[in-house]
């Protein structure tokens, strides 16, 4: 998380380092840093050099960028969000923060997280940053 500067991923840079959710536009928020720390810690064993990670509901791209640092240039992180403007913004945010991540290991796509993102499956870890009452079949079993 120290390698990803949250000010690039929040609408209000003056509150970027508060441990609270922040608005990112389009009625969406970036989660609080302690929530991101919890998720990254929980998934650490599955996010090694070369791992493949799907970040569903990637918002402004912050957590996907963290995963990209963890998996390194031989890994792959795909962030998907159903709001096209946020997907475009997340690319710009990473471009401003750490553009090399976009060369190979990190990509963002518009999509409905309920059907996963089969094109880059299988994944070692799937983080869901949006609520769904159950795990949708295509997220749990992407290749069936
Ligand atoms: C609370 S925000 C979290 C954003 C990001 N994961 C973070 O922690 O900063 C939830 C995100 O999920 C996205 N989202 C909600 N439902 C979705 C769906 N069915 N498919 C893809 N994205 C979705 C929203 O557009 C929003 O960007």
From TrEMBL:
GO terms for molecular function: protein-L-isoaspartate (D-aspartate) O-methyltransferase activity. GO terms for biological process: methylation. Keywords: Cytoplasm, Methyltransferase, S-adenosyl-L-methionine, Transferase. SUPFAM superfamilies: S-adenosyl-L-methionine-dependent methyltransferases. It is found in: Cytoplasm. Its main location: cytoplasm. GO terms for cellular component: cytoplasm. PROSITE patterns: PCMT (PS01279). Its EC number is 2.1.1.77. CDD domains: AdoMet_MTases. Belongs to the methyltransferase superfamily. L-isoaspartyl/D-aspartyl protein methyltransferase family. This is protein-L-isoaspartate(D-aspartate) O-methyltransferase. It comes from Boothiomyces macroporosus.
């Amino acid at each position: 998380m120290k390698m990803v500067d949250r000010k690039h991923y929040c609408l209000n840079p003056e509150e970027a380092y508060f441990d609270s959710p922040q608005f990112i536009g389009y009625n969406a928020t970036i989660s609080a840093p302690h929530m991101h720390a919890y998720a990254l810690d929980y998934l650490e064993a599955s996010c090694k050099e070369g791992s493949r990670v799907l970040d569903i509901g990637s918002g402004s791209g912050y957590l996907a960028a963290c995963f990209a640092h963890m998996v390194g240039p031989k890994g792959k992180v795909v962030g998907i969000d159903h709001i096209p403007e946020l997907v475009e913004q997340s690319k710009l945010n990473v471009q401003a923060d750490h553009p090399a991540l976009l060369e190979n290991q990190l990509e963002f796509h518009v999509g409905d997280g309920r059907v996963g993102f089969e094109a880059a499956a299988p994944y070692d870890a799937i983080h869901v940053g949006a609520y769904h009452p159950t795990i949708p079949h295509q997220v749990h079993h992407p290749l069936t």
